[in-house]
Request: fold
Amino acid sequence: MRPEKEEARQPATERDPRLRKAEPLPTSVLAGIIAGLAGLVLIVVGLLWWAISKKLVGAPLVVLILGVVGTGVYIYTNRDRLRIFWGQRGSRESTNATIFALLVLGIVVLVNIIGARHHYRYDFTQNKQYSLSEQTLKILRSLDKPVQITAFLSPDYYGTYEIRSRLREYDIASPKTIVTIYDPKTNLDKVKEFEVRYDGTIIIQCGDKKEEVTGGSEEQLTSAILAVTKGEKTKVYFLSGHGERRLDTMAEDSIADIKENLQNQQYDVKELVLLQQKEPQVPADCSALCIIGPMQPLAAKEIAAINKYLDQGGELFVALEVPPAPDLHEILGRFGIKVLNGVVLDPVSNLWGNMGVPMVVNPEPHDITAGQQSFFFPGARAFELESEEPTEPMYPGSPPPQPRKKGIELLMSSESAWLDTNFKPGVQPKKDPGEKSGPLCLAVAVDQKKSEPQMPPGMEPPVEEQQGKGPRIVVVGDSDFLTQAVRDISPVGIVFALKSIAWLTKDEKLVSIPPKEPTDRRLVLSGAQLKLVIILVFLLPVLVLVAGVTVWVMRRGG
Amino acid sequence: MRNVATIMRRELFAYFVSPMAYVVIIFFLGVMSLLFALYIGSGRAEAQMVDLFHTMVFLLLMVAPVITMGLIAQERNLGTIEILLSKPVRDAEVALGKYLAAVVLLLIILALSFIYPLIMEKYGSPDWGEILVGYLGVFLAGAAFIAVGLFASSLMSNQIAAAVLAILILLFFWLVGWISYSVSQQLGDIVRHLSVFENIQDLERGIFDTKPLIFFLSICYYFIFLTVRSLEQRRA
Reply:
């Protein structure tokens, strides 16, 4: 009993070795532990590197060797501790604990895999800055083949962050989109492989089809995806040979921007010179024919070729010029579009007080005018649309049908406008008796593809009756508003032309992916305000310092 | 839970009666204020926090191991951990109490850093949706870093070694994303999922996603679990 009493008198820390204060580790052992940890990290990095580069030479080999050396240093410096460790019963328990830890790790990994595949995502930014449009999402979700998006973006490229963010959304939106981003400055082999010439290039591939875009707007990317997944490009021809607006020059009176925009949207833009053909014919692959500002009349053979094209269900976009430019009556008249002779002048609704530049606000709601509020035309002519004869009621008791216009009057001038028939530059214009008063029609759209048979309310016409074989035509009374010079004031004309072509070709890709306008978030501070802010932000850590010193002094005093 | 609250209060008290909390807060706010002042003074500043959030996460990567290094390692060094473990308190409660104390300190740091968006509100029009989701991201990352730091602290009896170990583990989670773009798509996806940088990106921009949320919470859970196992080994 005596020894037990003596033992009881001993301090608790001496009776139980576990309660003894741990002795500090020798420096060599500590250094060995740090070397060992660094070695483990290097081994992991080296193995990953090896797996990636598929070659165990150079840097990955060096990293692995360093890792092994670090681990070796740990084993050597801690050899005594390790020997004791492996001799203990607890080591076996450690093995069980390790297996348990690995099991839990497996469960955690599984939860993450499920979480990555089925995740909820919401853009909390004010104007949904990073969200893709519904149209893009619809296209991405309907992809049935993998689409590889390879972007070459260096950190120095303007817009890298925005484009990366956007590409990330494309990546997340569909399992079929595979986004890879390379820094062209550090991946020269990839630059060579993809034949990339510019920083900011994005290559979209699907099977053996490939598209290249620069800039990476949503409209460009989605259009390119459509182009590689949907087959051939839509071909748009621009008639030439009658003094039309030029496509291939950046002169102020050219329409090069329209060409560039169409090409960016993956359209194939071509010039068509019917006069050069022995038997003029609009190409069979023409999805839309554009006649922009002809100054000389078309030859009879050309008119016949265009009429034939339209009779076969072709699509036509015409922008006329004021007299003496031709009115293309032989073509447009057949579809109920009467081109009036004269220049539209508007003393009230105009641009910058110039009555020769009438302004149109509140256009007719239509795909072509959607999202646009005002248009202006530097020198325009007007149209009238013929009406169709009323037909017999389709069913007993239906109201008698009213005469209907053969198309839609898209843009109407104000009531104050009139059609000046003897307009002379430099002479103060005035409205003469007999001249047609506003509102005047400045743009029309005719759609003979879609017949609209009168049906009882609530009944849809059969599908086969909805689709006619006639043409679609958009005519606007001015071509100046499509030029580079006017674009510098407002892009309204170019947008009108692009939307018209999109409507004509029924191509969904141009119609509704408006670019997101970033909100102006600039911080505007005067010099004094800047000083105040700087004082304020540095005052905060100083106050924390004061609090710390106060506590320290109080505790010393206490 | 009472035990957890008691341990948490004890640790928090220890933080604020020692220079630890003050040094960490001063370091964090000092660097952030310097960067904020440079940003505001650049003349091109906008009322957005994306870049500052990124810096915050990087600073937390260094600060979290310092906050946690002493939580268990110091007690092991002084021998007080055995006294604590001999009390009627479960290992999980010890780990959770200490973890929550560090998380509260993190919350205090983040609350103080709220001065920057408030200044932006005064002189611009920041997007509060973006800022609040960004703060959620920084908090989640910080909480995950603390869990890693706590585990490192449970393995070591030397505080510096614990901090170095935690920084090494966190650097792995930070840098692993760098190689994701240079590898095959499949491997890149796996590697990207492990990257703190990749996981924080969406939250910093104001996009809430359950994927990074699960990732950070997983790290928190797993490293606290490992800490508890480590304490149990100690008790055995």
Observations:
- DSSP finds twelve helices and one strand in chain B.
- The first strand of chain B starts at residue 207 and ends at 209.
- Residues 158 and 230 of chain B are 15 Å apart (CA to CA).
